[in-house]
């Protein structure tokens, strides 16, 4: 049992799956890649060949449901455009497999709830791929923020930005509301939102937001460019968060305590992080070993299956973010704060 590796199928062989997730199986301890689901047979065969996946275990979106007949597949990892997450999760659970799904979990609350119900009904686990919650620098920042090491927490700022370039396949669907669900908020603002929630360990009670998209920029005909949102937490902590498709690569947060300020920048990069603590006694960079966060999150799910535990970032965690993002859009549309029940 100790040596058993859980079998994974990856659905969608795009940028993230092929460049980050699939290579990470090479360092996983409890997980092995055993099947691929793709709309591009030649690409799937090339990847199967490169990573030692049996070519008999290549599926497409039409025969996806026949994964139910493959006993080597324990978990299906959905790495498709956002609005397709719900359908493939529900079908995967009905095929009797555990599900890992990329962020954002879905593009609306109803789909998130249906995904949770489908996995519950099938008696299968559902985890959302919130890699930062498995990454050592972020875990250290959470520990410092919640242990009192910074003094009483006052404020958080979190910013995520990248330039949207729809001439690239990975950004073509991101500019389409039907596939992406929204713009920078759904794609990368979710990291700012997550950070505010996992750093405080609290749930916001009120949000207020402003949205701006450059007029006449065709990239923002359907999805928003820049979002600023403020979260009020029960303890009194205020989080000021931004996301934008219009500013250069940014992925950072700061936590302001009464005694110290913590800066993680980059905070949500794939392979590079820098953690600084600053107080009366000066500035200090904390040296922490970089680890492959993709392997850590994949192995976490495998461990949950092997030991019958609930994943640390289950469907309910994804649902909460989607609920809050809807409240952020509502606040911006109404021009006033929205209370969270
Ligand atoms: P991508 O465009 O590179 O990959 C998407 C894949 O879906 C492609 O292989 C494409 O062929 C396939 N696909 C199937 N049906 C499609 C359709 N109707 N339209 C467009 N593509 C279709 O995108 P990506 O950057 O790999 O993102 C995929 C998912 O992973 C998204 O949900 C995204 O939010 C998530 N993601 C997460 C992280 C992270 O750090 N956790 C990073 C990047 C992407």
What does this structure look like?
The protein has ten helices and 15 strands. The chain has 341 residues and is an alpha/beta fold. The strands form two sheets. It has a nine-stranded mixed β-sheet with strand order 14-13-12-11-7-10-9-8-15. Strands 3-2-1-4-5-6 form a six-stranded parallel β-sheet, with helices on both faces. Strand 4 (75-78), helix 3 (85-94) and strand 5 form a beta-alpha-beta unit. The mean pLDDT is 98. The structure holds nicotinamide-adenine-dinucleotide. Nicotinamide-adenine-dinucleotide binds next to helix 1 and helix 6. The site of nicotinamide-adenine-dinucleotide (NAD) has 21 residues, from helix 1 and helix 6.
The main β sheet shows up as: 9 strands, mixed
Q: How far is it from the N-terminal to the C-terminal residue, by CA? A: 44 Å
Please trace the helix and strand order, writing H or E for each element: EHEHEEHEHEHEHHHEEEEEEEHHE
Number of domains: 2
Fraction in helix: 25-40%
- CATH-derived architecture of the largest domain: 2-Layer Sandwich
Assigned CATH superfamily of the largest domain: Dihydrodipicolinate Reductase, domain 2
Low-confidence stretches: none
Strand content: 15-25%
Largest beta sheet: strand ordering: 14-13-12-11-7-10-9-8-15
Overall pLDDT metric: 98
**What oligomeric assembly is this protein in?**
single chain
Per DSSP E runs of 2 or more residues, the count of β-strands stands at 15
User: And the CATH topology of the largest domain?
Assistant: Dihydrodipicolinate Reductase, domain 2
The number of helices is: 10
CATH level 1 class label of the largest domain: Alpha Beta
What structural class do you assign from the helix and strand content?
alpha/beta
The rough form would be described as globular
Cα-atom radius of gyration: 20 Å
């Amino acid at each position: 049992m100790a040596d058993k590796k859980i079998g994974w199928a990856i659905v969608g062989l795009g940028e993230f799956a092929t460049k980050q997730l699939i290579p990470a199986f090479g360092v996983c301890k409890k997980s092995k890649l055993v099947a691929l689901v793709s709309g591009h047979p030649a690409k799937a065969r090339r990847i199967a060949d490169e990573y030692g996946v049996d070519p008999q275990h290549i599926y497409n979106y039409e025969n996806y449901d026949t994964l139910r007949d493959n006993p080597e597949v324990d978990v299906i990892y959905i790495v498709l455009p956002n609005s397709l997450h719900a359908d493939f999760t529900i079908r995967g659970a009905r095929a009797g497999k555990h599900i890992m799904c990329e962020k954002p979990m879905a593009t609306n609350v109803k789909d998130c709830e249906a995904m949770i119900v489908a996995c519950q009904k099938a008696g299968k686990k559902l985890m959302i791929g919130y890699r930062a919650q498995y990454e050592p620098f972020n875990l250290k920042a959470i520990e410092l923020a919640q242990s009192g090491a910074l003094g009483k927490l006052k404020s958080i700022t979190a910013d995520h930005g990248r330039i949207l370039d729809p001439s690239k396949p990975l950004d073509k669907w991101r500019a389409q509301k039907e596939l992406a669900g929204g713009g920078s908020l759904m794609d990368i603002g979710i990291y700012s939102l997550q950070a505010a929630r996992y750093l405080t360990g609290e749930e916001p009670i009120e949000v207020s937001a402003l949205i701006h998209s450059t007029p006449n920029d065709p990239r923002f005909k359907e999805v928003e460019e820049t979002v600023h949102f403020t979260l009020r937490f029960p303890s009194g902590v205020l989080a000021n968060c931004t996301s934008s498709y219009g500013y250069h690569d940014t992925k950072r947060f700061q936590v302001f305590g009464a005694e110290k300020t913590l800066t993680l920048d980059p905070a949500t990069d794939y392979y590079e992080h820098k953690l600084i603590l600053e107080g009366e006694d000066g500035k200090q960079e904390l040296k922490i070993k970089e680890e492959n966060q993709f392997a850590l999150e994949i192995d976490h799910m495998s461990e949950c299956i092997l030991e019958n535990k609930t994943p640390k970032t289950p469907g309910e965690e994804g649902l909460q973010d989607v609920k809050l993002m809807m409240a952020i859009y509502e606040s911006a549309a109404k021009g006033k704060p929205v209370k969270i029940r």
